[in-house]
Structure formats: structure tokens, C-alpha cells
Design a protein that fits this description.
about 290 residues, alpha/beta
């Protein structure tokens, strides 16, 4: 889950590893500089730019990057730090692997990106009101609007399923996107997603909604999140198995937030493993 305790603990771990000091990290991310991602082998040429998308609740600012030809579309839901250089870089890297990628600002109802003043070094408590303003209804509304927008783009193949991936709070939103447009979504990936399993067992828990789809799933769980909620992985495995849906569910050694390159706990080897599994998922489900 996204909370200040997680961030403080994770940044302390990063600092202890001696990769960068707390002050250096804050200055780096505060300046909007994302750490570099490994290059894509045989990368395809892509076109990118900022776009706006009309929704029932307003106008969303987003980043769209795609090859020249029609390929499978992907919707990327950011973590609580929102649309920023690191997420744009991740979207571009995926596009260079052969996908048309839309990276949205999930907080567009409140303000345009950037929504985190210091990027991933922003205090979580300052961003909590933005996240708490979102709910099941906004997730579903946005899901339908963004998928419909993707389907209007010439670079998105209409005969191929759409994929989606979410980071931290984006995990449950990705699950609900699949539930909102079940006939269009073929693959869902969650990385250190918080709130996938409702602790009270409510019927609108994201994992139960996602289990009613026909998608394939990749669920990468942070080691410290698993320690906090050790039963979640078993609930997820049992739920998707009962629904007869392919689901790769694994606990990674990275701490919560290990995937984005601007994160204080970015762990390249584990992030690359997760990225490789993401490409494998899309390669099967979106072919």
C-alpha cells in the first residue's frame, strides 16, 4: 500500500545500501530527472507526445507513445506519484518493444501533471487526498473512457486485446479496468499493487471483480507487502485458480515500489525480472 511509513522505511533501506544519499535522491527526483532504464534490444521507432482525453468527469492529460503500425494497445496506471518522467520513460520503453502505450494522469480531476511536487521524493501524506478522492466508480468510469480512446487510435490494433499494468495504487485500478471492459482486456499486470484483496472480503474487492474477466494476470508482490499481508498471495492464487484464469503470482525480493526507476528503492535486477515477465505476458495474451 502507499503510505508514508512504507516510503520512509523503503528510502532508509535504499540509503543504507549506499546507492545515493537521501539529499542526492531528493534533488535528483525533485528536478524531474528519472533514472535511466536499460535499452530495448531491437527497439522499434516510436512517436510520442502529450494528449488530452475527454471523460464524463472532465479532461485527462496523458502521454501517448506508439510505433507507426497498428499494434496491441496498453494502458499504464501510475503509482501515487502520478504521471512524471519515470512513467513516461517506462511507457516509451514498452512502446519500443512493440506496443501503443497510454500513460494517464489518474488525478486529472484535481490537477494536471505533475501532481507530485518532488516526484517520487514527495511525501506520501501530501498526496493521500488525491488518491483518496478516487474510488471504484472513478476507476470504472476512467477505464471505459481510456480504453475507448485507445480504440480510436490508428496505431492500436482492433483485432488484438488490450493490456494494462498498474503500479502501487494502479494495481487495483488495473484489475477494475479489466472488469469494466472485460471483452477488450486480455492481460493485466500489477506491480507492488496495494489493495488488490479487500481485507473485509467485500464483493467489490478488485481481485473478485478481475476474476470475472477472461484476462491473463501477472501479480508481482513486494517482499515487505507480503510480510504485512501474507495471506493475500494465497487468496489471489485460489481465486484465479477457481476462475480458471492464468495467473503468475510471485513475491519479489524488492521492497514496495521497487519497479519505477525514480523510486528510492528501485532494484534493477528485480525490476528487470518483472519487466521480462510483463513482456512474456503480453506476448502470449495480446498476440
Amino acid at each position: 500500500m502507499c503510505d508514508q511509513d512504507h516510503f520512509d522505511n523503503d528510502l532508509a533501506e535504499y540509503d543504507a545500501r549506499g546507492m545515493v544519499t537521501r539529499r542526492q535522491f531528493g534533488a535528483l527526483v525533485g528536478a524531474g530527472i528519472a533514472l535511466a532504464l536499460p535499452a530495448v534490444a531491437n527497439a522499434v521507432a516510436v512517436t510520442d507526445g502529450e494528449v488530452t482525453i475527454k471523460t464524463p468527469d472532465g479532461t485527462c492529460d496523458a502521454y501517448f507513445v506508439h510505433p507507426a503500425n497498428a499494434v496491441a494497445g496498453v494502458l499504464l496506471w501510475p503509482d501515487i506519484f502520478g504521471l512524471r518522467p519515470a512513467m513516461r520513460n517506462m511507457g516509451k520503453r514498452l512502446a519500443e518493444s512493440g506496443y501503443s502505450v497510454l500513460v494517464v494522469n489518474p488525478f486529472y480531476r484535481a490537477q494536471k501533471a505533475p501532481t507530485a511536487e518532488k516526484g517520487a521524493a514527495t511525501e506520501i501524506k501530501a498526496l493521500m487526498p488525491l488518491m483518496q478522492a478516487l474510488n471504484e466508480t472513478t476507476h470504472m468510469t476512467d477505464a471505459k473512457a481510456f480504453i475507448a480512446w485507445l480504440d480510436q487510435q490508428p496505431s492500436v490494433a482492433k483485432n488484438r486485446k488490450i493490456g494494462m499494468q498498474g503500479y502501487c495504487m494502479g494495481g487495483p485500478i488495473a484489475f477494475r479496468t479489466a472488469a469494466a471492459v472485460p471483452d477488450r482486456v486480455g492481460a493485466v499486470a500489477s506491480f507492488h499493487g496495494g489493495g488488490l484483496v479487500d481485507p473485509k472480503g467485500q464483493p467489490n474487492s478488485p481481485h473478485l471483480q478481475a476474476a470475472k474477466t477472461k484476462a491473463q494476470f501477472l501479480i508481482a508482490i513486494a517482499e515487505n507487502d507480503d510480510a504485512r499481508a501474507p495471506k493475500d498471495k494465497d487468496v489471489l492464487k485460489e481465486t484465479f485458480s477457481a476462475a480458471k484464469l492464468p495467473a503468475e503470482i510471485e513475491v519479489y525480493s524488492g521492497a514496495h515500489g521497487w519497479c519505477p526507476p525514480d523510486s528510492g528503492v528501485y532494484k534493477e535486477d528485480q525490476a528487470e525480472k518483472a519487466w521480462t515477465r510483463l513482456l512474456a505476458l503480453y506476448g502470449k495474451a495480446l498476440a
